[in-house]
Amino acid sequence: MCSYIVEKAALVGSAKGRKGWMKIDTANVYFDHPYHSTLDHVLAIDFTNEGEGGRDRVAVELSADSARALVDRILAALASGEVAHATPAPAVPVAAE
Amino acid sequence: MSFYQGLQADVVSFRGHNGEQGEAYYARPTRSGKFPGVVVIHHIPGWCEWTTEVVRKLAHHGYAAISPHLYFREGNPGEAPDDLGARIRAAGGVADAQIMGDVAGAMAYLRAQPNATGKIGVIGFCSGGRHTYLAACTLSGIDAVVDCWGGNVVVDDPKLLNAKRPVAPIDLTEKMTCPLLGIFGNDDANPTADQVNRTEAMLKKLGKNYEFHRYDGAGHAFFNTLRDAYRPEQAIDGWRKVFDFFDRQLAASASSIAAE
């Protein structure tokens, strides 16, 4: 695309980069020419902490198809994980007759 | 004289927009003599390894070449250029005016070297092709430019214009003061073949000195040996067009001197 178009996602979490673990608050997401990949275009994500200046990042460059597959797997993992780790509903006390 | 010429390449300091000091990659032939200069404008992802290869290729062909690191203000010397590019992208990019100031500063660096002929060309790739077109229309002292698949020279979506990029380069064509060579892949999506045709129509209508070369079987960035988009046959012919053009416009014949 040769553009600076970026989608920003607010995040709560952590990422491990060159300096170890860091808190992150933003994902900058874009589909454009890569820096490292040999592909013409990539879905790139930079995980950063803009609240701390956004200078460090954890970066990925993914093919469009694999990015879509990743979105699908993220949703699948969330769906199955949230079921598996769901907090049991509190027991309802049986009223004494 | 050996067929293959030596060259020297290094990271140098130059004064860019507003006199700010930044890094640039510079290469020149090591033989004695004077050489025309070429500014290389890198693409949006940043000051990448392939850009340095282009600078050395130009030096191999008898030019003193420099590629200013257009994102140097975002970091400290030694920080990875791709990380600086990511910060630039997150901030919405660099203003055209700042890039023009950096290109002018790189031109001044070339002209200040004792081995300079004083002739200056500019070549840019992708977004750098767009910046090259802008430079031809807004900077003085350029003798020839090469736009390699510059996208957004024609702006069909007004949302792409903003405070940092206020004008579509094609709307400045009347102010173009130097010869232009354009290299394009017919499979490119930005610029499309139609946009290339519209740019050519504008150049023709205004009587500008230009030549365009379009390649079938090639898309965006087909010179880039580090990408799947690389098309060797078209790239070899395209580079020949580039050096023929620079030799005609900038020198008696820098390439032939290098090959003596």
Strand order of the largest sheet of chain B: 1-2-4-3-5-6-7-8
CATH top level label of chain B: Alpha Beta
Strands in their spatial order, largest beta sheet of chain A: 1-2-3-4
- What pattern of helices and strands is seen along the backbone of chain A? EEEEH
The helical percent of chain B reads 25-40%
Assign the CATH superfamily of chain B. Answer: Alpha/Beta hydrolase fold, catalytic domain
Major beta-sheet overview of chain B: 8 strands, mixed
Total number of β-strand segments of chain B? 8
Gross morphology of chain B is: globular
Secondary-structure element order of chain B, N to C: EEEHEHHEHEEHEHH
Mean pLDDT of chain B: 94
Oligomer: heterodimer
DSSP strand content of chain B: 15-25%
| Most extensive chain interface and residues per partner | A-B, 25 and 31 residues
Kindly name the structural category of chain A.
alpha+beta
Structural class of chain B: alpha/beta
Explain the overall architecture.
The complex is a heterodimer of chains A (97) and B (260). Chain A is 22% helix and 38% strand. By secondary structure, chain A is an alpha+beta fold. Chain A has one domain (7-76). Chain A is elongated and about 70 Å long. The termini of chain A are far apart. Chain B has one domain (7-250): Rossmann fold (3-Layer(aba) Sandwich), CATH 3.40.50. In chain B, 34% of the residues lie in helices and 22% in strands. In chain B, strands 1-2-4-3-5-6-7-8 form an 8-stranded mixed β-sheet, sandwiched between helices. The radius of gyration of chain B is 17 Å and the shape is globular. The chains are: A alpha+beta (97), B alpha/beta (260).
